[in-house]
Design brief:
Length: 285
């Protein structure tokens, strides 16, 4: 099975999980100005999602040797994050008559969903370690492309090499996209926390901030989970494909293949949060 089919399988499983995770959730009623803010930021998120779908399709079609398909998911999530940032930047302070002076310290951790954020941070850390490992183990293929094959010297006269392998040919551009996306996510969370209060209803304003922070965190989770699942699957199969593989390779392969459904579950969770249908709240007069 080639790289394209493997990653396509990952995306199909992720999509199936998304439909299971995405379900309507009630939203509390909001004051009129906050309804306007919610609608405006939702439009930017939707715009980012639509642009991301187009970018992902183009990436999957033009990328060589499966590299474009591997980057399709992270690029989609990156576009969603950019849409969130642009939407939050469009939120301005209310008219002077609606302002209320409040002395407070708002922190990112007060709005980010802690359980989801913990899983995303842990997955991002594991993905970084995995990419470092696969890059270090990678070898050049028969055309000299660095990091596309996994080679093993079985004896003085016998060696094996096979691919594809998620070495530097794949891991470097993937690390750049994911790293850029995580930076954008951090900036988005900062903007969510620092934007001006939208009236006197602080509880409703905080509710909207938590929704925005959840969206950013979910997009960051999708950014990490999809490539993690793809890299883990390809690396796990590759480590098992060498006839003289050491026991450490077999153990690592088992761990990586077990992580694939875990990351698909995370991806479905995050996609469900991003795509789940929410009832638009009624304005409070």
């Amino acid at each position: 099975m080639n790289t394209r089919l493997l990653l396509l399988l990952v995306l199909v499983l992720l999509l199936a999980g998304t439909f299971a995770a995405a379900r309507p959730r009630p939203v509390a009623a909001l004051p009129p100005r906050l309804v306007d803010v919610q609608r405006a930021t939702a439009r930017w998120r939707t715009g980012g999602l639509l642009v991301g779908v187009i970018v992902a399709i183009v990436s999957a079609r033009v990328g060589t040797l499966g590299r474009g398909l591997m980057l399709a998911g992270p690029l989609l999530a990156l576009c969603v994050l950019l849409g969130v940032v642009l939407g939050e930047l469009r939120v301005t302070a209310p008219p002077a008559a609606e302002r209320r002076a409040v002395l407070e310290v708002r922190r990112v951790r007060d709005y980010v969903p802690r359980r989801l954020a913990t899983v995303v941070v842990a997955s991002a850390t594991l993905l970084a370690g995995l990419l470092v490992t696969t890059t270090a183990m990678g070898s050049s293929d028969d055309l000299g492309r660095e990091g596309r094959w996994l080679a093993r010297q079985c004896s003085d006269v016998l060696s094996e090499a096979r691919g594809p392998w998620p070495g530097s040919f794949y891991s470097v551009p993937l690390a750049v996209v994911v790293g850029l996306g995580l930076i954008v996510a951090a900036l988005a969370l900062r903007q969510v926390v620092r934007r001006p209060r939208q009236g006197s209803d602080l509880a409703a304003d905080d509710s909207l901030r938590r929704r925005a922070a959840e969206t950013v965190t979910a997009a960051a989770g999708l950014l990490v989970a999809v490539p993690f699942a793809g890299v883990a699957m390809i690396a796990g199969i590759g480590l098992n494909g060498t006839s003289c593989a050491p026991a450490s390779w077999t153990a690592l392969s088992t761990v990586l293949l077990l992580l694939v459904p875990v990351q698909l579950g995370l991806g479905a969770w995050c996609a469900g949060l991003l795509l789940g249908r929410r009832r638009m709240p009624a304005a409070v007069s």
